[in-house]
Amino acid sequence: MSQLIAAMASSHAYTFYPPEEWDQRREVSYQRYSRRHGRLPRIPDELGQATLADDQERYQRLLDGFAELQKVLDAAHPDALILIGDDQHEHFVDNVPQFAIYTGERFISEDTERGGVGEYTVDRALARQLLVDAIDAGFDVVETTKLDGDRLVSHAHAQILSQLQPTVPVVLIFLNAVHTPAPPPGRCLAFGRALRASLDRDTAGRRVIAYGSGGLSHFSSGYPYEEYQGAADMGFISEDFDRRVLGWMRDGTIDRFAELTSQELLDNGEVELRQWITLLGLIGEVRPEWLVDETFYRGIMNMGVGYWKVGE
């Protein structure tokens, strides 16, 4: 039987830019927002209270977390890394699947923001098995066998690969998070459980690590505001909602996520929580070894990074 030995999760985007760059990047995002919506966004009051020095001190906790993830990955020597992220019209433009798995032989990952480039192989047998088993479990998963130019550019995936630079085969799983309609939280949890069931049935004896990339609460320049009817604007953060769902993660009470609705995710800047929820379905009711989260209004989001020890 193959085994999920560990799981990791983090936010992305501004998470991988140092606090010294946030003001400049935020201004660029404001202008992007203005071009899309014909006005500049309202500024949250909390932004005026944020300082670079405080952000630098708290951001170090995230850097320490990523350093720990690197140590775990390097020491574990897994046979494969399952990487779960969303796609924002980066690969899927005219057709937007709710779930997709890449089954090609290889790909070149391009972190277009930070310039990281790396070539990776795919565990095609594992990717194909996850695909077939998920379809048998009732999920209409799209198989994608080719990336344009063999290049992976979805930032939810590429930024993680640029950060960790794994040397093992990678299985890419894509979710639809930002394009309405998107799979409800309960469906994402069930999808993760179907992936775990597939691993548990696998007779190849693989030792696998899974990673969920997305969230936490943030209203970005590219948020689906056309579907959103609330009072938040770019740069707002739903701190109370994050505290609630992170509390469920820390307690291992993952069934609570099935009670959430897509509207709640949309209303709280949490559309990318779907990746974390899918990962939790893979993990099961296991408490994280550690889970760090920090709210940064200069960085327009609540950032987080966590690690779960699942098997041996």
Automatic annotation (TrEMBL):
SUPFAM superfamilies: LigB-like (SSF53213)
InterPro entries on file: Xdiol_dOase_suB
Protein known as: Extradiol ring-cleavage dioxygenase class III enzyme subunit B domain-containing protein
Pfam family, one: LigB
MF term (GO), any: ferrous iron binding
Residue ranges annotated for the Extradiol ring-cleavage dioxygenase class III enzyme subunit B domain, each copy included: 56-305
Organism: Paractinoplanes toevensis
